[in-house]
Amino acid sequence: VIIRECAGHIGALRIFIDSVVKFFEKTPPQQQEVLAFCFSETVVQAMGPLYGRRHVIPSDIEFQTFLIKCLLDDSMPLPMQYDERSCFIRLMKTGIIARDAKSFVKFTSPLATRYYFKYLFPKRGHHNPSSLNELIRKVIGNMSARVLMQSTVDKNDFPNEATFKHQFMEGLALWTESTCSICPELSKVFPALPNQPSQHNRGEIDFYLDGSLRWGIELLVNGDKIGEHMSQFAPKGKYAALAAEAYAVIDFRGNKTGESTNVARIPERITVFFKLGDFSSCRCIFGLAEDAEPITLNH
């Protein structure tokens, strides 16, 4: 996990391992405690001497959007024109992002992504929600109906996973404390089970919220491979070693009426129904609840 989190960067590995050793020097830790620490804000802050502490929040919206797309899509071509040259050069020099021979830009490691996350999503909450379901309600309500609509080509189209992920990352930051580390790419660094392929699945979108929460979240669209997603955080699942306090699989769906359909009720499943062509509100089924709960989105 540590090697994948650092993407093999020697300097990051050294700081990471030193942090783990120092934190657990007095008490032998359990595996789940070490894993929780690996995804903690303590590790992120320890990387300050390596990645630098003088970064700024991108003032240009287009450049900020470009960096977020790099985070979402792994790599993006560098725009021909951008006004934040000094910010871009600083990120390159400190090893947070890299540009290849074809001018594609990407974050150098999942750890670098987590380190710069606070600059891309600087607005944080004053306190944490009391439950995972409460957090999810707030995040869904914070989603932009306009952004969701603009991501579709016509009234019969539905937003893709990357659009929902962007909206969710912003909401998770807004409704959790700054001490809560948000890991947006858990599947990139967590070892696969023996019967699973080792490579990262681009359709696999997941979050882990550390700190005092230790919550896991997975997103999917239109029920794609929901059986596999339901088992990831469960006992004997891919993320079982994290011993998450709570987890949820959120299934975003669109239909012509926006009404809920007869989906299976499972405690950890949340199904969100939108009316195609209208993202101003949605209806959500939380866990075993029989009735759908309406949620109004931001404009």
TrEMBL record:
Protein name: Crinkler (CRN)
Top-level lineage group: Eukaryota
